[in-house]
Amino acid sequence: MTLISYDKENLEKVSKIIVENLTPDLIPKKWRKRNSVNPMFGHCYTASACLQKVFGTENIKLYRAKDDEDIWHWWAVDKDGEIIDLTVDQFYNMGRTPPYNKGKKAGQLGWGYRTRVKKLLERV
Fold it and tell me: Which helix (H) or strand (E) holds 104?
């Protein structure tokens, strides 16, 4: 189910709103100190899963891979195979490369992750 139609214009609008609403309360406490110096760090799953909630699983698939620090990084891939990584700056701002070449399709997470995605979706 999609909340709005998936096209480039809506993707730009929704992506901007998601990024503007990424706040430290949406990440696990253990990542908050690092997030204070790298504002996109820790938000990759929540941002990508929210994007999927807005546009639906028929348009957005979630991918993940461990990065060079052995931490999971999440991003989205659209129905045309385009990578959509709303938090990629957490890598580029630190002179690092995102692990797209190792990416595998993944499903949404449960527990506290689901709560954070819901909270972000309400803001969006």
Answer: strand 104-106
